[in-house]
């Protein structure tokens, strides 16, 4: 279930009510999205559709504004809920300082009692990275090392942790607070073969955003081929998928389940829709997140 922290519905009051109702209704997880900068002019192509799309002037802010920041929102959601998982889908790891991310997520995980899922991607919006003075070159390699750094900080066995890589050189430091989860699950999004390979090679799961059952069935052979390359059992790779706008029917949910989807994020717009989906689908034993 998405967190309505972006777009026309986004208010602190509505986010609180939405998340509390989802928590009490039995949904499995709440997902936030990540854009820190919403540039007016974009030359970057949006690359999640089958064909990369050209972005119109002000299209990012037209879709997302007001855009409440992801990490702060996850902390807020942790405070107003009790049992539901709190997830990013996806955080753009390459525009964020990995040391700060490690501390932020460990803090939220501790405050929430171990309910964080960290979905990451390498991003598509170069203009956002430029505005934040973050490097855009070799962002795949930078993301790989940042994931290794996060896990090193979260799981350090002794009083201190240090890390020495190509992009990060961290002297011995105190890693506390460590998260409840050892480590926090890292899920990797993206539809390119390189992104899917990264999800299998480094991730605890793959996030397939906004994908019909038909398209997902076309993509799963890429996931399975990557698993074979890296010596992983196909069933060890949890698939997290997002339905299209308009939610998902019970038949849709069953189709996703048959494809092995571990967690389905459904798109609902109103509290009435949320409660009706919980009654008609969740309470009948079908998954829905």
Molecular structure report:
This protein has about 290 residues and is of the alpha/beta class. The protein has a single domain (about 10-285), classed as Luciferase-like domain (TIM Barrel). It is about 40% helix and about 15% strand. The chain has ten helices and nine strands. A seven-stranded parallel beta sheet has the order 1-2-3-6-7-8-9. α9 links the parallel β8 and β9 (about 260-265). It starts with 11 loop residues before the first helix and ends in a 9-residue tail after the last helix. The model has no long low-confidence stretch (mean pLDDT about 95).
Features:
289 residues; alpha/beta; seven-stranded parallel β-sheet; 10 helices; 9 strands
Give a short account of the largest sheet: 7 strands, parallel
Strand order of the largest sheet: 1-2-3-6-7-8-9
How much of the sequence is in beta strands? Answer: 15-25%
Radius of gyration: 19 Å
Number of strands: 9
List the helices and strands and how they pair.
Layout: H1 12-25, E1 29-32, H2 59-64, H3 70-80, E2 85-92, H4 98-112, E3 116-121, H5 126-131, H6 139-155, E4 161-164, E5 169-173, E6 186-189, H7 193-202, E7 205-208, H8 213-229, E8 238-242, H9 250-258, E9 261-265, H10 271-280
Parallel strand pairs: 1-2, 2-3, 3-6, 6-7, 7-8, 8-9
Antiparallel strand pairs: 4-5
Helix pairs in contact: 1-10, 3-4, 4-6, 7-8
């Amino acid at each position: 279930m998405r967190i309505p922290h972006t777009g026309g519905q986004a208010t602190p009051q509505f986010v609180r009510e939405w998340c509390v109702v989802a928590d009490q209704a039995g949904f499995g997880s709440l997902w936030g999205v990540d854009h820190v900068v919403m540039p007016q002019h974009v030359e970057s192509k949006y690359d999640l559709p089958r064909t990369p799309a050209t972005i119109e002037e002000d299209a990012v802010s037209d879709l997302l504004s007001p855009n409440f920041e992801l990490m702060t929102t996850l902390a807020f959601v942790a405070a107003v809920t009790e049992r539901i998982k709190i997830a990013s889908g996806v955080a753009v790891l390459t525009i964020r300082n990995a040391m700060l991310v490690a501390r932020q997520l460990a803090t939220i995980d501790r405050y929430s009692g171990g309910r964080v899922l960290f979905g990451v991607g390498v991003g598509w919006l170069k203009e956002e990275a430029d505005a934040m003075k973050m490097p855009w070159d070799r962002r795949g390699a930078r993301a790989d090392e940042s994931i290794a750094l996060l896990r090193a900080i979260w799981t350090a066995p002794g009083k201190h942790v240090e890390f020495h890589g190509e992009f990060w050189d961290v002297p011995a430091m105190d890693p506390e607070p460590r998260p409840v989860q050892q480590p926090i699950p890292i899920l990797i999004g993206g539809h390119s073969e390189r992104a899917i390979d990264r999800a299998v090679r480094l991730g605890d799961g793959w996030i397939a955003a906004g994908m019909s059952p038909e398209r997902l069935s076309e993509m799963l052979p890429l996931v399975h081929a990557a698993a074979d390359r890296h010596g992983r059992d196909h069933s060890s790779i949890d698939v997290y998928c997002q339905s299209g706008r308009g939610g998902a029917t019970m038949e849709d949910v069953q189709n996703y389940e048959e494809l092995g989807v571990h967690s389905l994020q459904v798109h609902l717009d109103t509290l009435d829709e949320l409660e009706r989906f919980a009654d008609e689908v969740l309470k009948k034993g079908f998954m829905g997140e």
